[in-house]
Amino acid sequence: MRTVVLALALVLVAAATAAAQSCRPPAVVTDTVLGFKYCALPSYKTVVETVTQKLRADVAAARQAGRLVIYLSTPISPRGGGIEKINIQIAASVRARLERSFGSGAWVLDPGASQFPRVGDTEPGGGDYMVMFTHLLAGADAMGNDFDMAYFTGPSDMRAFFGCTAEDVIGCLARWLAARAATDPEVKKVVDDPAARRAFLRYYAMRASVVYSAGCHDEWNIFVRINNKRRLGEQVAVWFDGRPASPAEMVVEISPGYEVR
After folding, report:
1. For position 5, what pLDDT does the model report?
2. For site-directed labelling of 145, which of 12, 19, 115, 220 has its Cα 20 to 30 A away?
């Protein structure tokens, strides 16, 4: 009986593993230098390599100029009620604020400015981006030595973009939305659709941060894995929502986003 139960358990584990390791064609499971796996499109392999090389060159130029390099992790996808182009603008504003805060001695890499082009009739998925960013962040020796700090966008960062304070956040967002809708047809569609308007207000008032982003979850885990390989005192600095992460946060992986497990 025990043999039968053990055999059944092994079959179930194997089936679960196979399901977890599968990707919807034409995407295939793609390994990375840190051991993370993602579902990526073979047709984007050249794009991934080209963008990786460009960003590495940008990072190298900043380091050559003696600047400290900060990686900005911020939500771009509209998942949950956001608007992609607004998120890209928020990312740019966070980058500008970080560079003002740290001064000319810092340079911030904003992933929102590195959107992949279409390849034929296909669009890139989150896995394609994560293959690129994993290799970029790991660096040549998989120790993340090209980056001095990782900054993860939080609610206060998002609110600052809209000019909102800690009081009447929803009212502030509603006023911003109405004003923007007067000149932006895409935003006006959100205002005219009660469900979309509610989703917008809920997202930017209560959820707008890396906490609800699949890609940002993977980026957090990348830095945790890098830091767990480095000596105490030599880790990449990690910040969230304007503050340094605690010692516990720095070494704990969170639920994966696009990673295949």
Report:
1. 37
2. 115
